[in-house]
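Regression test case RT-17, inverse folding.

Input:
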């Protein structure tokens, strides 16, 4: 049972040296985007991949660096590849993703809801879903923007992918106690962490937790922080990581 994760990009929403923090999670039989932001179509192309090589996407929340590539993904799959990709998304985000994000560009006769474009798999948060023999996923609602739903992702109950979330030391502690052995966390290197965890906050975690954290969703200042992130390495874009063995 092996699950791999390759990041198309590891950058913050405003980063220009690193593409949006979007990944491709894969098992021997399934390949899914984790988020599909503005830069995802180009980043995918630069990796030598095409949309039809993926089975679908898992979506964490509705910011452009996480969903801004879905219009092109949906249209390419519809008109070029003639197949509906799976869209794993929290049940609370199905309607807003269509009404507030995609409808303006995608609605036309025959395309009137998200289900007309994607094979929508609405996920109930805190519930585990089997993707295939090797992989299960569970969404956990985590705080990001006040009054907006946003989710982190637990893979096989052992790998935690924060997506975008504020510093939640108690949650991280609890996850470790429940058996999580690897955490990929978004990280704001400069400025106040209003909607993301800052590096200063993450550096305050006990060494035992830091030692299982890798940093993603970082800004273009990354090079100034090499060697200054405690026990927490940066996730490298394009590197293929085995996240579950
Ligand atoms: O209240 C807010 C809302 C947003 N923002 C910025 O806009 C970005 C949107 O994508 P993101 O969630 O990856 O990162 C966010 C921040 O960089 C912010 O600083 N404060
Ligand atoms: Zn983001
Ligand atoms: Zn966000």
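Golden output:
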């Amino acid at each position: 049972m092996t699950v791999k994760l390759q990041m198309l990009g590891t950058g913050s929403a405003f980063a220009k040296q690193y593409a949006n923090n979007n990944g491709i999670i894969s098992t021997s039989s399934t390949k899914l985007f984790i988020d599909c932001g503005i830069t995802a179509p180009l980043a995918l192309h630069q990796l030598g991949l095409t949309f039809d090589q993926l089975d679908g996407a898992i979506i964490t929340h509705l910011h452009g660096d996480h969903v801004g590539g879905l219009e092109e993904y949906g249209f390419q799959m519809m008109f070029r590849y003639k197949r509906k990709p799976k869209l794993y998304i929290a049940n609370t985000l199905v309607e807003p993703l269509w009404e507030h994000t995609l409808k303006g560009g995608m609605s036309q006769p025959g395309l009137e809801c998200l289900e007309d474009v994607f094979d929508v798999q609405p996920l109930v948060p805190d519930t585990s879903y089997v993707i295939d023999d090797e992989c299960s996923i569970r969404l956990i609602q985590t705080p990001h923007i006040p009054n907006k739903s946003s989710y982190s992702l637990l893979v096989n109950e052992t790998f935690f992918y924060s997506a975008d979330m504020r510093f939640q030391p108690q949650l991280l502690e609890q996850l470790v106690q429940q058996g999580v052995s690897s955490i990929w966390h978004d990280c704001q290197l400069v400025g106040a962490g209003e909607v993301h965890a800052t590096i200063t906050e993450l550096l305050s975690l006990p060494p035992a937790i830091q030692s299982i954290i890798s940093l993603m969703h970082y800004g273009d200042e990354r090079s100034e922080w090499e060697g200054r992130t405690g026990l927490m390495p940066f996730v490298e874009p394009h590197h293929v990581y085995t996240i579950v063995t």
